Amino acid sequence: MGSNSIDAPKLRQCLEAAAALIAAEEPRLNALDSSIGDGDHGITMRAGFEAIRRKLATLDETAGIEEVLKEAGAAFMGATGGAIGPLLGGMLMAAGSALSGRSQMGAIEFKLLLESMEAKLSQMGKAKPGDKTILDAVHASRQAVSESDDQEPGHLCAKAAEAAHLAAQMTANMRSAKGRSSRLGERVLGHPDPGAVSFSLILKAFANCLSDWASR
Length: 216
Hints:
Elements: E1 6-7, H1 8-24, H2 26-36, H3 41-58, H4 65-79, H5 84-98, E2 104-105, H6 107-125, H7 134-146, H8 153-170, H9 194-214
Antiparallel strand pairs: 1-2
Helix pairs in contact: 1-3, 1-9, 2-3, 3-4, 4-5, 5-6, 6-7, 7-8, 7-9, 8-9
């Protein structure tokens, strides 16, 4: 693999970058959630990523990609409640399992990461694209990279982030089919799904982190 592939140290830095962006966006995520939920999505996401940060600080420097992803997922799941805890935590752990034995992520591995996340999310959440959930952003990002011939993981991540962002914004035009917001009917129209927005922010942080690495 080329020098721009993602190894475990880069992955740690990407997770740190995601934690920082989620913390900065906490008020906006809470505001989004207040329209169709409990108003605490930003708080929950920040708490989960703070737990990831603490776990990363205790991991041995020799920890590989699989261990980093699995430990991050377990930390997020253990620190958060509601639906997003097991969903996002489960996605990270599934990605770790899918990349077992891989020391670096190139284009193939990055596609596999998103494929495993979507598969796990579909299994756990019983949702489908168009249900106004985090799956809309995950599905769009996976589809964007699966259709690309680009072999640079940083470029693929940027494409995934843009696709997830657009998909998250499009959820504003959808009615909710899952969760508490499904009882709100048309009142959810005009409001993007907070989980989809959060996932798009995570990929944005990863893409920015990888771009910074590539420019060094």
